[in-house]
Design brief:
The protein is mostly helical. It contains 4 helices and no strands.
Amino acid sequence: MMDKKIIGTGALMGMVAIILGAFGAHALKKVLTPELLATFETGVRYQMYQAIFLLLLPTFKMLTEKTKKTVFYLVVSGVVLFSGSIYGLATNYLTPFDFKTIGFVTPIGGFLIIVGWSMVFFNYFKGKS
């Protein structure tokens, strides 16, 4: 059941990344500076990396179900904080909310993603099955 949730979330996250990438390339290109557009695209790129990672996660036989679940929640939370805050920061002047006030969550999101990947790395070398 958890594998289905992980794959579904990975597919949704990938689909949203594609939509946001197209939105950035077409609609935002007209209203953002090249630097802000590049920032927005960084959020899209990292979201897509994590989507692919989630799609592959259920195939990692060396991970226990509990570890997969933990990695899943770390990565999803990380993407929401990392990519989500980057989207907000890149489009900050287009919205009434000042995303700079929550910019501190960007590195927290990145850290959560790193911890998720690290769990896979260390479990691989531990030889867990």
